[in-house]
Amino acid sequence: MSDKWFVIYTRSEPHCGWCVKLKQLLSVYGYEYFEKDIKEDRYKKEFLGQGFKYVPQVFLNTKMTNNHIGGYDTTKDYLRRNFFTGHTNQDEIIKQLEELE
């Protein structure tokens, strides 16, 4: 696993369309993530214990920190602001992102 990856709180039941879109978004950018489905009691307790009410919730997990980014829209904005520095396949990724919207 790289030194930068994401932890995401999602919900599989009832179906969460934003959670599905978030996972697709991270995949398009090529990021790895660890999913915590709040259907499972241990993750639900963590989620509620942090004061969250809505999924998805995304954290950037680096070797030193675990920073909350937010939901789908905030994560999309974060990725667009921070991803393209130094990447040569920018046009291909933008096309894939447009297909998600």
Structural commentary:
The protein is an alpha+beta fold and 101 residues long. It has a single domain, classed as Glutaredoxin (3-Layer(aba) Sandwich), CATH 3.40.30. The protein has 4 helices and 4 strands, in the order E-H-E-H-E-E-H-H. A 4-stranded mixed β-sheet has the order 2-1-3-4. Helix 1 links the parallel strand 1 and strand 2. Helix 1 packs antiparallel against helix 4 (90-100). It starts with a strand and ends with a helix. The relative contact order is 0.19.
Strand order of the largest sheet: 2-1-3-4
Proportion of strand residues: 15-25%
Count of distinct structural domains: 1
CATH fold naming: Glutaredoxin
Helix content: 40-55%
Derived from helix and strand composition plus strand pairing, the structural class reads: alpha+beta
The CATH level-2 architecture is identified as 3-Layer(aba) Sandwich
Tertiary shape:
globular
> Please, what is the CATH homologous superfamily?
Glutaredoxin
- How many strands appear in the DSSP assignment? 4
**Count of runs of 4 or more consecutive helical residues:** 4
The unreliable regions are none
CATH class (first level) name: Alpha Beta
Helix-strand sequence: EHEHEEHH
How far apart are the first and last residues' alpha carbons, in Å?
28 Å
Gyration radius (Cα, Å) is 14 Å
- The mean pLDDT is 85
Sheet with most strands? 4 strands, mixed
